[in-house]
Amino acid sequence: MKRNLIIPILASLVILSLLTSIIGCAAQGAEPLPPQPRLRVATTTSLYDTGLWGYLEPMFEEKYGVELDILYAGSGIALEYGRRGDVDVITVHDKPNEEKFIAEGYGVERVPFAYNYFLIVGPANDPAGIKDMSPEDAFRTLYETASSKFISRGDDSGTHSKEKAIWAAAGYDYEVVRNSGDWYVEAGKGMGPTLQMASEMQAYTLTDMGTYVSYKSKLELVPIVQQGAILLNVYSVIAISPESNPKTNTEMANNLIAFLTSPEIQELIGDYGVEEYGMQLFIPCAGAEPTQ
Amino acid sequence: MSEIWQGLVKALELIITLDPEVMEIAARSLAISVTATLLASVICLPLGSLIHFKRFTGKRTLINLIQTFYSIPTVVVGLFVFLLFSRAGPLGGLNLLFTPTVMVIGQMILITPVLLGLTISALSGVDKAIPETARSLGASDFQTVAVVLKEARFAVMAAILLAFGRAISEVGLALMVGGNIRGFTRVFTTAISLETSKGDIELAIALGIILILIALIINLVLNRIQQR
C-alpha cells in the first residue's frame, strides 16, 4: 500500500462511519446528541410480552410529543433502576416491594391501573394431580411429591414475589423449597421465555393470565389452578420521587400516570386482546386497588 | 431445522422490501460498531506501538494483562460501564445511559484489549532488521514506527477486523448499557436476543443472516482496499 493512499483511505473510512451515523440517526428521527425529551419507563415483562406496551406506546408518544423509552426489565431490576434514578417511572406488579420502595422515599405514589390473575399452568395430563386445588395445596403437593418439575422465574420479578408469597401461605420457608431438589427449576428469565421453558420440559409454572394467553398458541401447557384469592395480580405505575432523583422527568411521568388512568385508555386496556384471544388480558381499575 | 430455511426466506424478504425497522437496526448497528472500531483504532495503534517499542519495567506484565482481557465476558464489561454511567454512578451526570453514545464508549472499552494486544503482536512479528535499518538511515522515531507499521499492515488490518467483529457481534454490553430500546438503542444482536425469547425464531434467524451478510460485505471492501 503506497504511503500516499493511507490518508485518503483512512479519511474515507472516517467519512463512511460519520455518514452511517447520520443516516442511522436520521432514520430514527432523533438528534445525535443527548439530551432530548425522553421518558424512561422500566416495565415488568408481562406488560411487554403481551404486547400491551407496544400497543400503548405510539399513542402516548403522539399525544405528548415525547420519546418513550421502554426498558424490558422485570419488577426486580425495574425497582433497582428506579432507586438508581436511571428511569423516570416504573410499571410493576409486586405490591409488597412497591410499598417498601415508596416507604424508602424512591417513589411518589403507587397508582394501580390494571389487574388480572395469576394461574398455575402445566402439562395437559397433570402428572402431579393438582388440578383445581387451591394454590397453596397445589404447591404443597408439588413439594411433597417432588416428582413433577416446577419452573420458578427465579429473578425477583413480581411473579416470583407472588410465588414466594404462595409458598409462605402454604407454610414453607422459601430457602428450603429452593434447595429441595431437581424438581424445582430456577429459570432466571422473563415470563414469556419461562413459559416456553415449562412447555419444553412439560413442567408446571406460575404465570400471569396476560402473558399466558398471548403465548398460548406456542405452548403445550393448560391452566391447572385458577381459583384463589392469593392469585390477584395488580399492575401499578409509580413515578420516581424528585427527592430521590432531582433530574427525574416528573412532569412527563405524571402525564403517563394520567394517561394510563384516563377513561379512554382504561377502556382500550380492557379491550386489549379480546378480539384476538377471546378474553380480556387486563381488567382496568383506574387508580383504585381492586378488591376481589 | 426448517426454521433455518424459513429464516433465509424471511431474510431475503426483509432485504428486498427494504423493511424500515430492519434498515434502521442495520444502520444503527453499523454506526455504533464502526465508530467504536475507528475511534479505538486511533487510540490503540499509536498506544500499541508505544508499548511495543519502548522499554519499561512491567512491560511483560502489562502485555500479559492485556492478553488476559481478551477473555473478558461482554456482559462483565457491560456491567462495569453500566455502573459508571448509571445516574447513581460517577459519570451519571452525563445522562448517557441507555443511549447509542454509551454503547460506542462501551464497545471501545470492550475491543481495546484485543486491538492493543494484536497490534503489539503484529509489530513483534516484524523482522528487527527493518527498524534497525531505518534508524541507521537516519529515520526519526515517528518515521521508524511508520515503517514498521507498514510492514505489519496485514496483521494490523486483521486486528482491526477482529475488533470490529467482536464489537458488532456482542450482546451483553449492548443489552446492559443500551437497554434494547425500540427505535433508539436496538441493534442486531439485542433484537435477535429479544425475538428468540419471544419465540419468533424465523425473524431471529433472518436478522442473524442479514448481520452476517453485512459483515461479509465489509470484509470484501476492506480486503479490496488492502490489495491495492
Characterise the protein shown here:
The complex is a heterodimer of chains A (292) and B (228). By secondary structure, chain A is an alpha/beta fold. Chain A has 13 helices and ten strands. By secondary structure, chain B is mostly helical.
Percent strand of chain B: under 5%
**Rg of chain B, nearest Å:** 20 Å
> Major beta sheet of chain B, specifics?
none
The CATH architecture term of the largest domain in chain A is: 3-Layer(aba) Sandwich
What's the total number of strands of chain A?
10
Mean pLDDT of chain A: 88
* Total E-strand runs of chain B: 0
Mean pLDDT of chain B: 91
> Helical residue percent of chain A?
40-55%
Q: What order do the helices and strands come in, and which of them pair?
A:
The complex is a heterodimer of chains A (292) and B (228).
Chain A: H1 3-28, E1 38-43, H2 45-49, H3 52-64, E2 67-72, H4 75-84, E3 89-92, H5 95-103, E4 107-122, H6 135-145, E5 150-152, H7 158-169, H8 174-178, E6 184-186, H9 191-201, E7 204-208, H10 209-215, E8 222-225, E9 232-240, H11 250-261, H12 263-271, H13 274-277, E10 283-284
Parallel strand pairs in A: 1-2, 1-3, 5-6, 5-7
Antiparallel strand pairs in A: 3-9, 4-7, 4-8, 4-9, 4-10
Chain B: H1 2-16, H2 20-53, H3 59-68, H4 74-85, H5 100-124, H6 129-136, H7 141-151, H8 153-169, H9 172-178, H10 188-197, H11 201-227
Helix pairs in contact in B: 1-11, 2-5, 2-8, 3-5, 4-5, 4-9, 5-8, 5-9, 6-7, 10-11
Features:
heterodimer, A: 292 residues, alpha/beta, D-Maltodextrin-Binding Protein, domain 2, 2 domains, 10-stranded mixed sheet, 13 helices, 10 strands, globular, B: 228 residues, mainly alpha, MetI-like fold, 11 helices, 77% helix, 0% strand
